[in-house]
Specification:
Order of helices and strands: HHHHHHHH
Helix content: 55-70%
Number of strands: 0
Shape: elongated
Number of helices: 8
Radius of gyration: 21 Å
Protein name: DUF1836 domain-containing protein
Largest sheet: none
Pfam family, one: DUF1836
Number of domains: 1
Strand content: under 5%
Distance between the termini: 58 Å
Organism: Clostridium novyi B str. ATCC 27606
Structural class: mainly alpha
Length: about 200
Amino acid sequence: MRNIQEVLKNINDFAKEISKNSLVTYEDLPQYSLFLSQVIDYLNDRFEEEKYTNNIVQNYIKNEVISKPEDGKKRGYTKLHLIQLVLLSYMRPILTTDEIKKVFALAFNEINDRSDDIISWENAYKIFDKIQNESFDNFLSVDFFDKEKLQSFIGDDELKEDEEERILVFLVVMSLIAKASAIKKIAKKIVDEYGKKHSNK
């Protein structure tokens, strides 16, 4: 099938584009403190599908998922808050608010107390950036889809050429969903088990 190579190349190109626009490096985060409205604009520019609002961020603060803004300052949202919210943005599609809180507690204990952090937020952010870049690099370097297996699925049915392409894309999407689903379940199980262990101390 002629289309299989072309479709898989296009998908690889999508992955390259996404990897280029993935995480903002620590150095590229705003260096100055922001108003809440500026934080919302920043997040919505970076995470268009998330639709952040003032209420969403304020609820994360109220529920102690992220740190409180600096007292008495109009521009009370610092680079630390952006780091927390960007990391949270990657977890939001996968974990519940309570699970995100447990993940943060593993490394930072009490969210509003910097003195009990096991690692710094800066290091956590840089580590996540590196892991994410490596994940994209691995995706791009590995022959992620078994072309012969895909061809065998398609080849069993008598399909027109445009139908072959549609079924190929369907199979690729379902393959990614299966992998993402498995990873999500594993992540949730880890958070659940270690969250219980941490909260029992």
